[in-house]
Amino acid sequence: FQNLRDHTLADQNCEAYLTGCSVFPSHETSSLPTAKNETDRRLERSEIKRRLTRKLSQRPTVAELQARKILRFHEYVESTHAEDYDRRADKPWTKLTPADKAAIRKELNEFKSTEMAVHEDSRIYTRYHRP
């Protein structure tokens, strides 16, 4: 079907070339917007902005989205009771050795003393952890 359309268009172009008229509309007769000066361009842009803002502010309803097959809900939703599984979070900080804790404190103190941006007048209030 695509080839048939391409051949038809090619035949029209050849015939138009031979007769001297174009199948495609010229720039003057086309429906493309042509702004003559800066004020026309500004008015055109403000109209487009107003139209797009209106379109964005008018949201479709759930029923409309379902009718257009954009939004679908499943009939079956799987759910389990809270007692069936453990919801407690893992606590990795309880598994740290004293050496790990000391290394973390040392790294934090080094960061605070060298890399962290602090105003000179406020530097005396910086809290360092015991080594």
TrEMBL record:
Where can this protein be found? Answer: Cytoplasm; Cell projection, Lamellipodium
Q: Where are the RPEL repeats?
A: 50-75
Name of a matching Pfam family: RPEL
GO MF, one term, reads: actin binding
Spell out the residue ranges making up region: Disordered: 25-45
Bias regions of kind Polar residues — which residues? 27-36
One GO cellular component this record assigns the protein to is: lamellipodium
Q: How does it assemble?
A: Binds PPP1CA and actin.
The protein's name: Phosphatase and actin regulator 4
Protein's organism: Poecilia reticulata
